[in-house]
UniProtKB/TrEMBL annotation:
Chain spans, region Disordered: 287-313
This protein's UniProt keywords: Copper, Glycoprotein, Melanin biosynthesis, Membrane, Metal-binding, Monooxygenase, Oxidoreductase, Signal, Transmembrane, Transmembrane helix
UniProt membrane topology term: Single-pass type I membrane protein
Cofactor: Cu(2+)
Enzyme Commission no: 1.14.18.1
EC category name: oxidoreductase
GO molecular function annotation: identical protein binding; metal ion binding; tyrosinase activity
Protein source organism: Illadopsis cleaveri
Gene Ontology BP annotations: melanin biosynthetic process; pigmentation
Protein name according to UniProt: Tyrosinase
Main location: membrane
Length: 529
C-alpha cells in the first residue's frame, strides 16, 4: 500500500472521543496520572515526532464556582480529569484525539488541512434507503464493542487510588449512554448519603455546548465503525407535532400491541436492552452503573402527567425562546429567569421565560412526553429518539447563535454551577474539551442544518453578479456623467480661485491664523446628509 494511502487510513481510523481510553486504563497510567498514548503513525507519544502534539500538564480553571455544590474533594468529576490524570496530550493545529491522531471537527485530510461542512437533515426528508441505513447504523453501534474506550465500574477510591483498576468493555452505543449517565449522576458521599443537586451536563450554562460536543463525538463514532465519512445525524423537527410522529415501526419503533409501555416487536429497537436506569439502586450501594442489561426500552408517548407537560412544544414557543437576548442569567441554574439556555432546556416557561421547574417546556417536554426510558435523565440516552431530539435542540441553539452573534465572553467565565464555567473541561470526555470551545457556530465545527441553510450562502462573486450586470448596462451613461461632471468641476474651481484672488487685497497680517484662535479647541466638524 502506498505510504500516502497508509497515512490517510491512519488518520480516518483514529478513535474519536469517549470516556477512558483503553490504553490509559491500567495501573501504570493511573498511578502516574498520565494519559499520553503513542500515535500509531510514528509511535511517539501524542505524535510528537510528527509535530502533532505533546504530553503536557493539564491547566485547570481557577475561576470560582457557584454555591450549588458545597463540597470539595468528594467527587471524581471535580476539576476533571485531575483525579485520574494530570498529564494528557495537547494537540497542535487542527489535530485532535487522545493521541492527537485525528482531525478536529470540521477538518479532514492527511494533515487535517481540508475544511468540510456536512449537513444534518430532517429525518422525514431522508429517502427510504437513507432512513433504513440510519436505523441499521444505530443497531450496528448497539452490537459492536468499542475498540478504544472502556468505562469505569468504580470510583478512584474504590480502585485503591489506581492500584486496582476497575474498567469494563462496552458497545459503541452504550458507551454514550454511560457517558450521559456519568455526567449527570449523583455524588456518592459514603454510607447511604448522596448529593443530588449536581449535574455536569444539565441545569446550567454547559447544557447546550455539552450536548453539542456529545452529538459530534457520537456522529464521528458512527462514521468510524461504518466507514461512512458522510454520515450525519438526522433531526426530528417536533414543533407543533400533535403526537410522536417518529413512534412507528418505519422509524423509531411503534407501540407494542398488548403492552403500551414497550415497543412493537416489529421494530429493531424492541430487542435493545437499557443500562444505567437504576439510580436509586446505585446510590444505595454507593456504586457506579456497570452497564449491565436492565430490561427493554420503555416508552408510552402521550400518556404522561399532563399537569407537568400538557402538550408538545409549538413554533411560537421556539420563536419566543429565540427572542431572548441573554444566554444565561441570575444563579445560572434551573431557577434562572429570562435565560435562553434555561428556557430552551425547559425549566422556564416558553411564553414568559420565568423559571418554573414544576412545568416542563421545550427540550424537557419531549423527554417527559415519551413517558419511559427517555423521561429519566441519567438513562435517557437509551432511547434512540434521544439522538434525533437533541439534534433538533442543537439546531435551535444554532439559530440563537446566528441571530444574536454573541462573543465568547457571553458564556459565563465564573460562578456557574460546578463544571459549567467557560474554561472547565467537560465531564467525562478524554481528550479534553472546554465548555467555551463549543459555544460557536456549527459551521466552524464542520456541520450545518438543512433547514437553516440560506440560498444566499454562495460565493462572493455569485452575490455580486446581478449588480455587475446592471453596471455593464449603464456603463456608457456612467462614463458620460463622469466626463461632464469633471468639466463642470473644473469650470467652477477656476471661477472660485479667480474670486479669491480679487479678495486678497488686504494684508495677510490682519487675518488671524486659525491655530492662534482661542476658540480652536472648540471647533467641531459637522456633516449634514
Amino acid at each position: 500500500m502506498p505510504l500516502f494511502a497508509l497515512g490517510f487510513l491512519l488518520v480516518i481510523l483514529q478513535p474519536s472521543t469517549g470516556q477512558f481510553p483503553r490504553v490509559c486504563a491500567n495501573v501504570q497510567s493511573l498511578r502516574s496520572k498520565e494519559c499520553c498514548p503513542p500515535w500509531d503513525g510514528d509511535g511517539s507519544p501524542c505524535g510528537e515526532l510528527s509535530n502533532r502534539g505533546s504530553c503536557q500538564n493539564i491547566l485547570l480553571s481557577q475561576a470560582p464556582l457557584g454555591p450549588q455544590f458545597p463540597f470539595s474533594g468528594v467527587d471524581d468529576r471535580e476539576d476533571w480529569p485531575s483525579v485520574f490524570y494530570n498529564r494528557t496530550c495537547r494537540c497542535e493545529g487542527n489535530f485532535m484525539g487522545f493521541s492527537c491522531g485525528e482531525c478536529k471537527f470540521g477538518f479532514s485530510g492527511l494533515n487535517c488541512t481540508e475544511r468540510q461542512v456536512k449537513t444534518r437533515r430532517n429525518i422525514f426528508q431522508l429517502t427510504t434507503s437513507e432512513k433504513n441505513k440510519f436505523l441499521a447504523y444505530l443497531n450496528l453501534a448497539k452490537n459492536i464493542p468499542s475498540q478504544d474506550y472502556v468505562i469505569a465500574t468504580g470510583t478512584y477510591t474504590q480502585m485503591n487510588n489506581g492500584s486496582n483498576p476497575m474498567f469494563r468493555d462496552i458497545n459503541v452505543y452504550d458507551l454514550f449512554v454511560w457517558m450521559h449517565y456519568y455526567a449527570s449522576r449523583d455524588t456518592l458521599l459514603g454510607g447511604s448519603n448522596v448529593w443530588r443537586d449536581i449535574d455536569f451536563a444539565h441545569e446550567a450554562p454547559g447544557f447546550l455546548p455539552w450536548h453539542r460536543a456529545f452529538l459530534l463525538m457520537w456522529e464521528r463514532q458512527i462514521q468510524r465503525i461504518t466507514g461512512d465519512e458522510n454520515f450525519t445525524i438526522p433531526y426530528w423537527d417536533w414543533r407543533d407535532a400533535e403526537d410522536c410522529e417518529v413512534c412507528n415501526d418505519e422509524y423509531m419503533g411503534g407501540r407494542h400491541p398488548t403492552n403500551p409501555n414497550l415497543l412493537s416487536p416489529a421494530s429493531i429497537f424492541s430487542s435493545w436492552q437499557v443500562i444505567c436506569t437504576r439510580s436509586e439502586e446505585y446510590n444505595s450501594q454507593q456504586a457506579l452503573c456497570s452497564a449491565t442489561s436492565e430490561g427493554p426500552i420503555r416508552r408510552n408517548p402521550g400518556n404522561n402527567d399532563k399537569s407537568r407537560t400538557p402538550r408538545l412544544p409549538s413554533s411560537a414557543d421556539v420563536e419566543f425562546c429565540l427572542s431572548l437576548t441573554q444566554y444565561e442569567s441570575g444563579p445560572m441554574d434551573k431557577m434562572a429567569n429570562y435565560s435562553f439556555r434555561n428556557t430552551l432546556e425547559g425549566f422556564a416557561d416558553p411564553q414568559t421565560a420565568i423559571s418554573n421547574p414544576a412545568q416542563s417546556g421545550l427540550h424537557n417536554a419531549l423527554h417527559i412526553y415519551m413517558n419511559g426510558s427517555m423521561s429519566q435523565v441519567q438513562g435517557s440516552a437509551n432511547d434512540p429518539i434521544f439522538v434525533i431530539h437533541h439534534a433538533f435542540v442543537d439546531s435551535i441553539f444554532e439559530r440563537w447563535l446566528r441571530r444574536h452573534r454573541p462573543m465568547l465572553e457571553v458564556y459565563p467565565a465564573a460562578n456557574a454551577p460546578i463544571g459549567h464555567n467557560r474554561e472547565n473541561y467537560m465531564v467525562p470526555f478524554i481528550p479534553l474539551y472546554r465548555n467555551g470551545e463549543f459555544f460557536k457556530p456549527s459551521r466552524e465545527l464542520g456541520y450545518d442544518y438543512e433547514y437553516l441553510q440560506e440560498p444566499a450562502v454562495q460565493s462572493f462573486q455569485d452575490y455580486l453578479t446581478p449588480y455587475l450586470q446592471q453596471a455593464r448596462q449603464i456603463w456608457p451613461w456612467l462614463v458620460g456623467a463622469a466626463v461632464f461632471g469633471g468639466i463642470v468641476t473644473a469650470v467652477l474651481t477656476g471661477l472660485i480661485r479667480a474670486c479669491q484672488k480679487k479678495k486678497e487685497g488686504t494684508s495677510s497680517e490682519i487675518q488671524p491664523l486659525l491655530t492662534e484662535s482661542e476658540d480652536y479647541n472648540n471647533i467641531t466638524y459637522q456633516s449634514n446628509f
